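User: Here's a chain of 58 residues. Predict its fold as tokens.
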Amino acid sequence: NTGNNTYKAVQRETGALAIGPMLQGLRKPVNDLSRGCTVDDIFNTVVITAIQCQDTEK
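Assistant: Prediction complete.
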């Protein structure tokens, strides 16, 4: 919880774009969306997941 709270606080205070969480170390890309995510969160996660899929095809 501490990591999640910290990244959300930094995102809100700085206006930075935060995308995540991104899960790593699995054979195939898997990422997570929170219940409170926005359409932009969904879009960004789909884009990152698609990029991860391209990397696994090599």
